[in-house]
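Researcher: Go.
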Amino acid sequence: MIALVALTLVMPSCKNSVKFSATVTAGDDDSTQVDTLWNDSIQHEFFETPFGASRQDVIDNFTKHGFVLLDDMSDDDMLIFGHKGAETYPFGGMQWENLTVYLTNGKFSGISFYTPREDKDSAMKDYDAIVKVLSQKYQLTESQPDSTMYKVTRAYSHTPYIVGVGCYSYDSADGKKCYTSSLDYNDLELGNQPSAEL
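Model: Structure:
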């Protein structure tokens, strides 16, 4: 017996919900198995700021690390940051253009690193590079993408933290089709929690 579990995630740059599936199979003894690899832990502190920190602590600590809050693009649930003096900034051995922090009830609950691309091939190359770097740190599980996602890979842990890489397309404010690959970390206890639908 095979069942599909659909999960809904909020993607960073366009606030669209994205669904992907994981396959669940029943064994000979009617036990179920999920083809997911588990890690002991997932990173949950960024720029000296742990998940659960207040909005102001996020702003203060990220500012100390050279980030600038883009007030006109941010809101109560999402903080958009630029970086002082550079178009890109380093994180995890890679260069990024954009950084979004997610808040749930005023608490730091997720972070997304991403760089927009004008073509799918460039975004797919970014995705492959991110997965290669991430696979050196975590055991990864590839998930089934939907029509807006080209590829999705996640690292799950026995803690409430999850990290994922997604390659997807979106429409910009001026109606142009854009592509990106993102590196996303989330605290599933605080927010940005995928909802399971059987």
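Model: The CA atoms of residues 74 and 80 lie 5 Å apart.
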